[in-house]
Structures are given as C-alpha cells and as structure tokens.
Write a structure and sequence with these properties.
Structural class of chain C: mainly alpha
Order of helices and strands of chain B: HEEHEEHEEHEEHHEHEE
Mean pLDDT of chain C: 77
Oligomer: heterotrimer
Strand content of chain C: under 5%
Chains: A mainly alpha (398), B alpha+beta (244), C mainly alpha (116)
Distance between the termini of chain B: 26 Å
CATH class of the largest domain in chain B: Alpha Beta
Number of strands of chain B: 11
Strand content of chain B: 15-25%
Order of helices and strands of chain C: HHEHH
Structural class of chain B: alpha+beta
Shape of chain C: globular
Number of strands of chain C: 1
Largest interface: A-B, 50 and 56 residues
CATH architecture of the largest domain in chain B: 2-Layer Sandwich
Radius of gyration of chain B: 18 Å
Number of helices of chain C: 4
Helix content of chain C: 55-70%
Helix content of chain B: 10-25%
Distance between the termini of chain C: 58 Å
Radius of gyration of chain C: 20 Å
Mean pLDDT of chain B: 87
Chain lengths: 398, 244, 116
C-alpha cells in the first residue's frame, strides 16, 4: 500500500545552494559565538535585568519544536493514525536535528562555555537545568533508538515509540518548568506553564512538519497526496484549540487574584503588549484558526502552509514573550511602595537584542537545517510517494 | 559581640596585628592560621531603615572598595552587591524610606536550588556563596532570585589601582554577588558595609549570629518589629528590616 | 572477530608510528628550547611542601585547598594561594613560564590578584 522509502536525490544546484546558505549562516553563528566568547556578553544586548535574551528564545523555541516534531511519529506509533505512518522516520529525525540545533545555541550562550564539562561532574538534582540535561539526552537516545527500530527492528517500534512519546511530554513539561517553578517572577510562575509549553510544542511541531513535508515533496517533484496535508490541518486545528484553551485558563486564574492585577494589566497594556496580542494570541491561536477554519483558505495547501508558517512564528513569539516580558516586569519587593535605585529597581527593564544574538540563534537554526538537508539526502527517511492509505477518508473539512 | 572569641583572643598577649576599629570598639588580633566556619552559626543582618539617610552611600562605597566591585559605567550592566533603594509610599501615608538591599542569604535560597553545577551553595554557617571556580555563567540563578542580588560580569573587569588583594576580582562570564564579606568573617570581622555604616553612616546596620539567642542582633529582632523582603515566598531571608 | 583483530593491529601500528614521529620531531625541539628559566623564590627558604612534590602536585594541592577554603569554609592561611606570592613574587616569571613550557593555561590569574 505505502510506497517504498527513498532518499531524495539532492544533486540539483538548488539543493546545494540551500545547503551552502545554511552553511554560511552557521559560519556567521560560529563567528558570533567566538565574538561573545572573546569579548564577553557585553557585546550582546543582555544586561543585569534581562539576563536571558535572544539566544535563549531561539534555543528554547527549537527545543519546543523538537519535541513537537515527534508528533507525526507518536500519532501513528502510539495512536495508530495510519495515514502518518509513512512519516514516522522523518518525524523522529526532525526531532533529533532540532534538538541538536537548540541545545547547541543554549550551550554556546553560557557565560563560560570553557567550563562546559563541569555540569557533568557536579550535578545539583534540584535544578530544573540538571533535569533537562537528562531529559534532553534521554530524548536524543530514544529518538535514535526509535529511528533505528524503524529501519531494522520493526518489532520494537511500538515500545520505543511509546517511550519516546511519554518522554517528550515530560521533556517539554520540564522545559516549561524551567520558568514555571520560578516563584519570584509573576509572569513565569504557574503550574500550567509546563502544559502550555507542551501544547505549543504540539502546534509548532505539527506546523513545522507540514511545512517541511510539503516543500520537500514539491521541490523534489515527488507526489504528496493533498488529503494528507488536510489531515495535518485537522491535527493542527485541534492542537491550536488546546493552546487557546490553556492560555485562557492561565489568564483567568491569574486575573482572578488581586495580587496579579498589576502584572496582568502590565502584560495587556505595557511595553510587551504588542508581542502578547499579535505574537502570542495572534500567531499562536487566532490567525492560524482564522485561516484553517475558513472554507476557502483552509481547503488549500497554500492556506495550510500559511497557517503553519504563522504558527511557527507563534512559538518564537510565545517563548519570547514568556522570557522577555517575564524578566522585564520589575520586582515588587516592598508592596505598597514605589521603588527607585541606581540598579533600576521599580522600572521596566529595557532590552534591545544585538545582532550577534540573532546570528547565534540563526546559527542554531542553520545547524538544524543542514542536518535535515543532509539527512533526507543520505537516509531513506521519506516515502517516494506520499499517498493516503486506501479506504482512508478525511473525517472533516471546513 | 558577634565575633569569634577564639580568633579575637587566640593569640593571647601577642596581638601581632592589633587594630583599633573605632573608639570604644574591640581589638581584632591576627586570626589563627586555621579557622573553620561553624555550622552552629547563622549569620544575619538587621537594617534599621529609620536611621538610613537617602543621601548616604557609605555602605555601597565600602563594599566596592572592599570587594573590588568596579563600576562598568553602563547602568544596565553595573554590578551591585549592595545598593540603596528609595521607597515612596504610593498612598502617601507612610514616610519615604531609603535602605540598602543586598543578598539576603536565605535559608531556602532559590538561586542555590536552580544552580545546575552547585556553584551556588550554602556554606556551613548559612552564607550563600558563588563558587567562582564552578560557575558556568548560565544565569539561571539571576532568573530565580527575587532580590536582584546577583550580577553577571559582562566584560573584562578593570582592576582598580588600589585593589584589595585579599579579594579576587571576578572574570567575565561568571555571576557574582554579596558574600557577607566572607573573608572578613573568617578573620573574625564583620562585613565592610556594616563597619562603614557605623563609622560614616547612620549606624543602622547590625550584623551577627541569629542562631545565638544572646547575640545583639537576636535580642533586637526579638524586641523590635522587623520584616523581611518578600516573606510570602517562604525563603526565610536573613536580612531583616526595621521600620517599613 | 577477524575484522576486529586486524583493525586493532592497524590502530596499534598507527599509534606507534605517530609516537615515533612525535618523539623524533617534538623532543629535540623542546630540548633545544631548554627548560624554562624560573624566577628564584624570594627569601630563599623552603617551599611549603618539598620542592619535587610541589612540582608534581601543586595543581591538585591548589584545587584541594580551594575546595576546602571556598566550600567548606576552612581557611589555612599559611597555604593559601595568596601565600605563594610571598615567595614566588611573579606569576608571569614563575607559574606562567613553566605552564607555557608544558602547554597548560590555568585561568586563575584572571581573578586572583597575584603580583605580575
């Protein structure tokens, strides 16, 4: 029924140009890392108020998408969604490359990357970071095993795939909890920060997979059944609704408590309000849904691609908003008092990202990109023709 | 007295490097060769905000010279181990206040909880320290601290010409903060800010062992009403404030 | 198995040749450069540990000492890093010279105010 897996040819000048472009961006990213290493974080836009800047936004977005990239795999292996079975290899591989890209950015943004091995020697098991070290490496191993089993030991696919699925839920909860457990910061602290990250990983991973699948099949002149794209659309709609639901619940719970009036008002109207409304609500929930639910746009591949693109922008906006707004809101150390000091107490922190930070971040994306391009060239990750299984019909269309 | 008697009187009559702090104050002898932090003690501070003048920066100046904390010149990135914060009551009922904010050396320090390498740690006597040799500069501690007590070193620090050779400077890429002048405490002294406040300021800072019920600070904390910053977080900070 | 054994043999040969090469090229070069001229310690007394022991173990000693001081709060003043400076009055002419020779670059003096 399903067609044979085959690597793409990858001999066209277009292909190598794309690889070259990514290599260039990666080289610039490496340059940015070296510059930060030599001159210190003084050349970035970060400061003692906003200590995690663009590199973290890129890194964490990539990590969130890495976990989300496993969606197609989990859907078929764990939830028996037959039409996506042909994309499981692609899905596990994409998860690996995104993870590598994200982790690289995260590690290269350390103040002292020369001491990179120290966390292996001395571990504080109370730190969410230490947990994440294990979660990421475990995820990497599970994805590799998953991939391997799909190639050589089909009988283990179900077990490993299910383990990887459980792991990724914990993993992304862990990523979200890096922020969620921080009681000091009103914007971060919430029990559903973790679940929100999981939900956003579901949407962005599905969206990115859609974009990459459609464009890979188009560019290589292979056939991909439109029905499959619309199947992905339906999944994306479902996940996006979940994101919207969690956003509402979080805001509702916080806004109910007078202690949060100030923060919430500040988030809605303050310096980060635009990012919140357009980036978080707009790109993560409203715009994609407007397209996907629309009877005309939602039934075209272009429409689904556009919505997916917006969703991917949305994950960056979401992470940026949590991170940057979360750090910019001044601490209310003495309730009832207006604070002022030479250390900028009581005022909103200002953060203007520097070019090197973007260079480092895009370097991580480029690393993932190169690995992806080489992967689909050298491994048989994708079916030669992506067709819907016989007898499978779209359950729903707008 | 808040000092380690053993180190005050340790050298008996020799008083090799005796030093007079202020009229009427105690004499400090050169410390013994080997001293050890005691797990019986918990160092703490009491700041009487009613005697803290908004214009006075004796404590912050003293800290800078003692610990070689240089000013970078960029307010966003200057490093502050201790800073003066001015408070203005939003309702205008309570008087304006000015007070120093420094690391609170919490009993449950969130910075230590989140540090992946155990670079931030609690010493036996309750002082929260950063082990500069182990800090990888991930800055998670700065995210977790509700007092903004920590700063990252953004560029290669200048060595002040009159640098205090007893305290290492810090290199770029590590996170630093108040140490309660741990080197002075180990020598039987008290933090530089407290000393400066008594000499040149309003005498509003009191330092001592809050585990010892007979210490001056313990008595004061029992007698007057004090608060800590963000007591709601349950971190049990050891810097107490009076008068707010 | 056969494959492994032949692989191991080849790696062995490769390592041996490389070693020979390093010895042939590297050693004379170093001998020519001569051992570094270290500054005489001031005061001329004894090092705080026997000299030979110190030469071999000072790194572990310093790291042990710093763990003790910083993390345990146990200060041994006669054996602190600052104490070294009382006799070894320059890190550029003492520690660094030797380190450059053997090719290690500890970052201690980025922070520790040791006399130049």
């Amino acid at each position: 029924m399903l067609s044979e897996f085959s690597a793409i040819e990858g001999r066209s000048p277009r292909y190598w140009m794309l690889v070259g472009l990514f290599a260039l961006v990666l080289a610039v990213g490496m340059g940015a890392f070296l510059a930060i290493e030599v001159y210190g974080h003084g050349i970035t836009g970060m400061n003692n108020q906003v200590v995690w800047g663009m590199p973290h936004v890129f890194a964490i977005s990539l990590l969130v998408m890495a976990s989300g990239a496993l969606n197609l795999g989990s859907m078929s292996t764990v939830f028996a969604t037959v039409q996506f079975k042909q994309f499981t290899r692609f899905s596990a591989f994409l998860a690996i490359v995104l993870l590598v890209g994200g982790l690289t950015v995260l590690l290269l943004d350390l103040g002292r990357p020369d001491r990179l091995l120290l966390p292996m020697l001395h571990m504080n098991f109370r730190s969410m970071f230490t947990w994440n070290v294990f979660l990421y490496s475990g995820f990497l191993v599970l994805c590799l095993l998953y991939l391997w089993s799909m190639f050589s030991y089909k009988q283990f696919t179900k077990v490993v795939g299910s383990a990887a699925f459980a792991w990724r839920v914990i993993l992304t909860t862990g990523t979200g909890s890096i922020f969620g457990v921080i009681q000091a910061r009103d914007v971060f602290h919430s029990a559903i920060t973790g679940p929100m990250f999981v939900a956003v990983s579901l949407t962005s991973g599905t969206a990115l997979s859609t974009i990459l699948l459609v464009s890979t099949y188009r560019r290589t002149g292979r056939h991909m059944d439109e029905k499959l794209v619309f199947g992905l659309r339906n999944a994306l709609i479902f996940f996006t609704l979940l994101v919207g639901y969690l956003f509402v619940v979080e805001k509702f719970t916080k806004m109910y408590s007078p202690a949060f009036y100030d923060v919430e008002l500040w988030l809605f109207t303050g310096p980060w309000a635009k990012l919140y409304w357009f980036g978080v609500w707009g790109c993560c929930v409203i715009f994609p849904l407007m397209i996907l639910f629309n009877g005309r746009w939602g039934n075209t591949v272009h429409g689904v691609m556009a919505a997916s693109g917006i969703t991917v922008v949305g994950v960056f906006a979401f992470v940026a908003h949590v991170l940057l707004a979360g750090q910019s809101f001044p601490f209310d150390m003495f309730p009832g008092y207006q604070l002022s000091s030479v250390f900028l107490d009581g005022v909103d922190a200002v953060y203007t990202p520097a070019l090197v930070e973007f260079a480092l971040g895009f370097g991580g994306i480029a690393l993932s990109g190169i690995l992806f391009l080489l992967g689909i060239k050298f491994f048989r990750l994708l079916p030669g023709r992506a067709v819907a299984p016989k007898g499978w019909e779209l359950p729903w269309s707008p | 007295m808040t000092m380690d008697r053993r180190s005050v009187l340790g050298l008996g009559g020799v008083l090799a490097a005796g030093l007079v702090l202020a009229p009427g104050m105690r004499l400090v002898a050169a410390p013994e060769n080997v001293t050890e932090a005691s797990d019986k003690r918990r160092w703490g501070m009491l700041i009487d905000t009613t005697h803290c003048d908004a214009a006075c920066t004796a404590c912050t100046q003293a800290c800078r010279t003692e610990n070689n904390v240089s000013i970078v010149g960029d307010p966003q990135r200057d490093i502050h181990w201790i800073r003066k914060v001015d408070l203005h009551d939003k309702d205008g009922r309570k008087p304006d206040r000015s007070l120093p904010v420094l690391c609170n050396h919490c009993e449950h320090p969130p910075c230590v909880h989140v540090c992946p390498t155990e670079a931030s740690f609690i010493r036996k006597d309750g002082i929260v320290l950063v082990d500069m040799h182990r800090c990888i500069g991930c800055r998670y501690c700065m995210i977790a601290c509700p007092y903004k007590a920590r700063s990252l070193v953004y560029s290669k620090p200048k060595v002040p010409p009159d640098a205090n050779t007893r305290v290492p400077i810090r290199a770029k890429g590590v996170v630093e903060k108040c140490t309660f002048c741990v080197h002075r405490i180990d020598d039987g002294g008290e933090p530089a800010c407290v000393e400066a406040c008594r000499k040149d300021g309003g005498g509003s800072m009191l330092f001592g062992d809050i585990n010892d019920p007979n210490s001056e600070i313990s008595k004061r904390i029992r007698e007057v009403s004090t608060t800590t910053i963000r007591a709601d977080l349950g971190l049990k900070p050891r810097v107490h404030y009076q008068g707010i | 198995m056969e494959l492994l054994r032949s692989l191991a043999a080849r790696i062995g040969v490769a390592v041996f040749v490389t070693l020979l090469f390093v010895l042939a090229v590297g050693l004379p070069a170093n001998v020519q450069a001569g051992p570094p001229q270290l500054e005489e310690p001031k005061g001329g007394g004894e090092c705080i540990r026997p000299e030979g022991w110190m030469r071999r173990n000072h790194m572990d000693f310093l790291k042990h000492q710093r763990g003790l001081t910083v993390r345990e709060g146990i200060r041994v003043r006669s054996e602190s890093l600052a104490k070294c400076a009382e006799c070894h009055t320059s890190h550029t002419r003492f520690c660094d010279r030797c380190h450059n020779y053997v090719g290690v670059a500890p970052d201690c003096f980025e922070c520790h105010l040791f006399p130049e």
